[in-house]
Fold this sequence. Notes:
By secondary structure, the chain is mainly beta. It contains 1 helix and 3 strands.
Amino acid sequence: MAKKVVATLKKEGGVSYAKVIRAVKSDKTGAYTFKEEMVPSTMVQDTLKK
């Protein structure tokens, strides 16, 4: 299982955002790549369950 990192960012317009960084393993090469997403803080748990 890859590590999951969440960084909380400042509030913008009343909604706070978090940057979610996930390490994803490639099926072809076996190398890891990092996928970054900006999501509202309330959606972090749903994003990590994907």
